[in-house]
Amino acid sequence: MEGLSYRFFFGGQSHQLIRFLDAFDENLSSHLKSSGVEEADDSVANRPELTFERKVTADAGVSTAVIGLVFFMASWAGNHILDELFEEKFKEGLKGLISKVRNNIKLGRTESIEYRSVICKPEGHPTVVIRLNVEIDHTLSGLTDSIKFAHAHAENWIAANGKKAKIHCHTIVNGQCNLEPELYSNIKDIDVRNRKTEVRNWNFVPRV
To answer: With helix as H, strand as E and coil as C, how does 87-134 read?
Structure first.
């Protein structure tokens, strides 16, 4: 896919991080590379609205691990790009990634996680963040279709209303997303408002 690159990111407790990396490498890394989607250079990925907190913090609430993919697009030619991005092989890889991330074999249990799908377009366009909380009892059927639908809705809203902030955020609940976006200046502000994690150690790969 010409003009498209990515970064994988994750946040959670230290014992989860290796599992996250292994899950990404096994389920999506090779597919993205074979599709011509390379890891984004720092010159592309270092955007002011994508400042991830790298320190460990203690917040009130239930601990929820977060994983996500940021796609950087050199140009935007309409919603048909979403059809290319969310094709069947990618959707199957994404389901495999989420399944492994939330399956804590060591502790013999399934954990709830939050997946974030982020699309960064050229200057002048807002960055779109789609949030999906995957609970312990959720099946993964239709998961990626919901994410694709939410991205399409977000783009239609932007076309009708314009850019209102650096980040437009939509959250999927029971297969439906909020009609109007939540507005942020930085992706780290999403966690401050929702306060979902007890311990958060962010990493924004590539990694050595």
So the answer is: CHHHHHHHHHHHHHHHEECCCCEECCEEEEEEEECCCCCCEEEEEEEE
pLDDT digits (tens, 9 = 90+) for 154-204: 999 999 999 999 999 999 988 889 999 999 999 988 875 554 433 334 455
Instruction: Round to whole Å and give the CA distance between 196 and 65.
Output: 9
Listed residue (96, 56, 51) closest to 204, CA to CA = 51
CA distance 36 to 150: 25
CA dist., res. 157 & res. 66, Å (int): 26
CA dihedral 104, 108, 114, 118 (to 10 degrees): 30
Length of the chain: 208
Q: What is the DSSP string of 170-206?
A: EEEETTEE-SSPEEESSTHHHHHHH---SEEEEEES-
Is residue 195 within 8 A of residue 60, CB to CB? The reply is: yes
Q: How far apart are CA 39 and CA 64, in angstroms?
A: 26
Angle between helices 88-102 and 143-161 (to 10 degrees): 110
- Per residue in 5-25, pLDDT tens? 999 988 877 667 788 888 899
Which pTM does this prediction carry? 0.84
89-101 pLDDT, tens per residue? 888 899 889 888 8
